[in-house]
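Model the whole thing, not chain by chain.
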Amino acid sequence: MKPTAIFSILSVIFISIFTVNLSAATVNLEVSVSNPFLIANQEQSIFLKVGLTGLDLGEERRTPANVSIVLDRSGSMDGEKMARAKEAASIAISMLDDRDIVSIVTYSDTVSVLVPATRVSDRNYIQSRIETVFADGSTALFAGVSKGADEVSKFLEQNSVNRVILLSDGLANIGPDSPRALGSLGESLKRSGVSVTTIGLGLGYNEDLMVQLAQQSDGNHAFVENYNDLTRIFRYEFQDILSVVAQDVKIEINCPEGIVPLRILGRDAEIIGNKVYTSISQIYSNQEKYLLVELTVPSSQAGSRMNVADVKIDYSDMKSKRSNQLSGRTTVEFTKSEETVEKAVDKETVIDAVKQISAEASEEAIILRDEGKVEEAQALLKENTDYLFGAASALESEELMILGDINVLDMEAIEDDAEWNESRKRMKASSYEIQSQQSYSD
Amino acid sequence: MNRKLTTILVIMVIIPIGLLSWMGVTGMKTEKDRTKQQVQYNGKQKLNLVQENISLLFKEIESDLNNTLNLVSLNIDEIRNIQRNQSLIQQIFIEDEDSLIYPSDDYFISLREEAFLTRIKETDISFNFLLKSKIETAKESVNKGWHTWFMGDGINFIYWEKAKFSDKPNKEAIIKGIELNRSALLSGIINSLPVTNEKNASFRISLFDVNGNTIYQWGSFSPPLNLSADSSMSLEYPLSSWHLEYYLDPASIKYNGNNLILIVSLVTLFFMILTLSIYLYRESTREIREASQKVSFVNQVSHELKTPLTNIRMYAELLEKKFVSEDKKTKKHLDIIISESGRLGRLINNVLSFAKDQKNGVTFNPVPVVPDKIIEHTLDSFKYSLKTKGIKLSTKLNASNTVLADADILEQILSNLISNVEKYAITGKWIKIESSLENEILVLTVSDRGPGIPNNFHKKIFEPFFRVSNKLTDGVSGTGIGLSLVRILSEIHGGKVFLLSNNQSGKKEGAIFQVKLKTPLYNSKEEV
């Protein structure tokens, strides 16, 4: 998942990349295709990858955070869970300083603002407020997230990381409770510049809802089975937040006549004719976020060269605190030699594509299992396992091998009714990690 | 007397207590009603504020949407760019009078736009309704507004505006519209409403959607399921299918302090009245109880006294005959013995008769008698005591026919009346006894010139144990049952006793008692 520098350089040599850096950019754009060489006189489909990697700004110049921690304090959180959640929130606060803004919102039957959006100058006060939380009542999740986002919006700034961190262990039962409704909320929040990280604790929450909310708002998602891991996840999340280098990244891909974008892997994007639009909320330092598009390339004569995509990026640069543009394009060459084609394959891009396809298969298997089609789900995962292992050996990828192993475990888990709840949450979380190129996992 | 007094006292107690309880209950009820109304009013006020908040929010939203719609031209790329960046927008659309111009299957559209088209088809409403119905039915002035319809699990909101595009001059009118992101709208509404804090610790306000599901609520009070809302209110258009409910924590309702004072004073008053009536009752019955006890005692000993008394009398009379003209002084002493034992005998008879009457046991034994003879015989026994007291006796006896009557009763009635004169009308120094027979009714009249009987006591004197005056000077001989016995015995004899008006005697003072008894004539021939 993390591209080695050497491989990147090799890619640059093999593939024609024109990356225009208008300034000392904090984001590095790479546009690549899975197959730089294509067999002549044949219509083929390839994967286009638009990768964005953040540079390190350094602690001194890090992006300020504007965070709302939204804590589920419904009855089910009572006891050790709540104690750990408080501890995790306290640790998170200790990672912030007076550049940052934090608010703490709790919800059960109703929503309370424990700490209104405030600059982190008096950590002791904030931590003492956290101590007063107790668990009781039901789960007004939608309202909790809304109010958290409302607190964030009080100090909403293009140059800070605006995020809601939701910790919940239960099913929303007051207010809207469908994954679709929460997904829509996530989408609108993303448009306002707020992303929501959802942390599902234990086995009682609705992973579809939590993933949808994270996905649509372009936040992170984690499944924390054991409350003892909460502090670690909070630490990851805050490290992530504090390493943002670019925000509100708009990606526009223009394909020349004849080249058809078929589908997007992983992320949500709009395909309109030969154009693709999408956006990524945040780019973190030393991390790659990417978009994979499957393209149909028309046949062409051997020796000819074809432009497959013009990519335009518009983002808000956290270092210069200005909006910045990047652009890039990539071409393919046609040859009669299958060996040339074989040799030129961009393994990194293909591996990413395989991961995305595998994640999609995993999602599909979950749907089948939900419909009670256990055998079909297993067959799908079996197919996926073979696919992963095949690709792993062909591409010499250890990562895909591990993914294959996990798939084997999923295949077994899917028929175990007792374990299914847990497995489903794990599968959901890990496919989302792949789809969103989340930097951390548990 | 007894029953009447009790009744009065009971009424005296019951009416004020009833009144007080009624006042108390209604007072509390009105207080409760008042409090309830106050609660409802407060609730309404609070809900009104919420309503205003939401209306204000919708005004803002409308203004934002208007601004957005103003930016919408026929350039689809621009439209798409607008909708990508606005958090409240689900989908922008443009339609002319025939069909949707955007989005449309006529050109490449995104999955999202396709989903919009599917959504609309699912609603089973042609989108042209918007334009056509708005144009046809709405007045010229109405050129924008809300349109809502139910989709999935709630309302879908559309904001529309009539427009004319300069680059489409041939088209008359066009509708530009925005389908709102329902969750974003909901979230906006929620964010315009308060969170739970110390200001709303005692109540709960809940916002419900058309299906009665809670959308949002705030306030620390958690109403139990069976509690009904103190106030509720529907929201304004376009949210008219939603409503607000207000619940106040009943524990937080404070009743007015005045009310407590009222209750305490009512209770105090109640006890005061009760104590007073008990006191009055006991006071008024004390004499009666005492007299009654006296009679009861005399009754018990009377049986024992009667035989010795008869013997004393008999032997005294024997002795009188023996000493007929020898010693005047001895004769006088004997007269006193006879007179006093006669008086004692009457007293005992009275008590026994009264006690018998109490048990409904006085027997009526009519035998052929001449009333005047009985009267004379009775007067004989009084002659001595009247003489010693200086009471002048005058008689006018006209009942010399033989009639059927109870001699004992007759004698007892007369004795009591004369005895009363002796006791209470001694100052008049005069007594007159009259008798007559009118149509088989014996009329006995006893008049005196004593102090008389005040008008207001005319009825009461016939009640047992009642005495006009309780002065000690009245002497110890009164038991308070004499007149009462006269009345009882008269009634047993089929007659009645009357106290005639004092004036009848021609003088201001004095009393006239008249007894009328049913005495059928006795025909000895028929007997034989």
